[in-house]
Amino acid sequence: MNNRRSPLASLFIPAMGLLIAHGALGAAAALPDRSAELQSALADYQRTAQTPAPKTNPMTAQKIALGQTLFFDPRLSGSGALSCASCHNPGLAWGDAMPKGLGHLGGRLGRRTPTILNVAFGEPYFWDGRATTLEDQAKGPLTSAAEMNMPAKDAVALLQANPGYARMFSDAFPGQSISIDTIAEAIAAFERTVVSATAPFDRWVGGDDTAISAAAKRGFLLFNGKANCATCHMGWRFSDDGFHDIGLPGNDPGRARIAPGIAQMAQAFKTPTLRNVDQRAPYMHDGSLATLAGVIEHYDTSFVRRASLDTQMRPLSLSADEKADLLAFLGTLTSVDAPVTIPVLPN
Amino acid sequence: MKQITLALGLVAMLAAAATSADAPVTVNQKGLQFSVAELSVKKGQTVVFFNDDRTTHNVTVSGDGNGVSVNGGLQPPGADFRMPFSKPGTYAISCGIHPKMKMTIVVQ
After folding, report:
1. Interface pTM (ipTM) of the complex?
2. Contacts of A133 in chain B (CB under 8 A)
3. Is residue B13 part of a domain?
4. pTM of the model
5. DSSP notation for A291-345
6. Which residue from A2, A132, A262 is facing B71, i.e. has the nearest CB?
7. Catalytic option among A147, A185, A191, A322
8. How confident is the model at residue A41 (pLDDT cuts 50, 70, 90)?
9. Which CATH number goes with the domain that contains B30?
10. Which CATH number fits domain A61-191: 3.30.70.1450, 3.40.50.720, 1.10.760.10, 1.10.1900.20?
11. Is A147 annotated as catalytic?
């Protein structure tokens, strides 16, 4: 166990002291002021202005429109019943609200469906990081026999035979033929547009002290201090895009299958974003925790102790009030995102 | 006297150059990134990977076709991992925990 206090935790002690000195704890009031330390810490959570895209697959309106159409088309599955959106449902925070995903003919998959929210920023992909690009990721579920069960050549033949799609591909990829690569590039281009909007937390970061409650502000301090969440859930997306064994039971090897030889990667899984997290139950890579309160209990004391456990995992001794403050903070990360248009599918 | 001073100065400069050429080079890891994307070092030179971040890292080194593959192990904040590069070639460096952290080292 690593019982050292993180530098960021130390940084927050003065801010917490300030709260206590002003009697603000428990009061429904804004922070007394913004210390330089607090302002500096908040700067770590400033949103990135631009959505990244690889030079090999620049985003164009035609490509995004094609990708969105492909994303919602169940004909791109062996059963004709599953689209990308079946699991990554925009109405369910781009997830499926189930503990484990459902694949071909209703077969239960091994892990929970991760959201695609803010996926443009978060390579590598999948819970075990086996895809290094979003384009590679897009090919995975499409062609997997357990998931959409659509062999690449069948997908290409299906789209070539559809005049509407032929036109869309011609517009999006002038001079190129329909291939599994252009299919994946279009889907990836659309997925890169799925970015969470401004949340109350962002407005607080931007200087609006009325944007979030006093409880949420205390939760932010806990998140970055005693609760040690920010060690992995860092930055504006609240993810280090790293892999950690956080002590969930089970025997899924996780990242170790992709990166053998690194002891701490046994049963390690990618840090998920916390944006809109309260819209995305159940939680964890195995969907084993039904509520965010359950997640906090897990980190507080309920994790499995084993050799590969991340060195940052340690009992937190959080009080009931502190757990409530963390929950209040997590709720401020949810944005009201623009409605998503389900496209008319071409024939 | 002026010539002697210049000569001594030249000797000192040459000595310093020789020392710096062999001195360890430090690469930092703050903010989930290596402080340089590419680094060129001399054969036998040591690179010190210093973890000045607030989270644990794990440097891995993989040579391009020269058989070198090294796992630096867990590196908590404040720790360093020293790696002498004795074989010329190009090396891919990454973090085993945070695979977005990547850099290249070329050993002359």
Report:
1. 0.84
2. none
3. no
4. 0.87
5. SHHHHHHIIIIISPP-TTS-TT-------HHHHHHHHHHHHTT---PPP-PPPPP
6. A262
7. A147
8. confident
9. 2.60.40.420
10. 1.10.760.10
11. yes
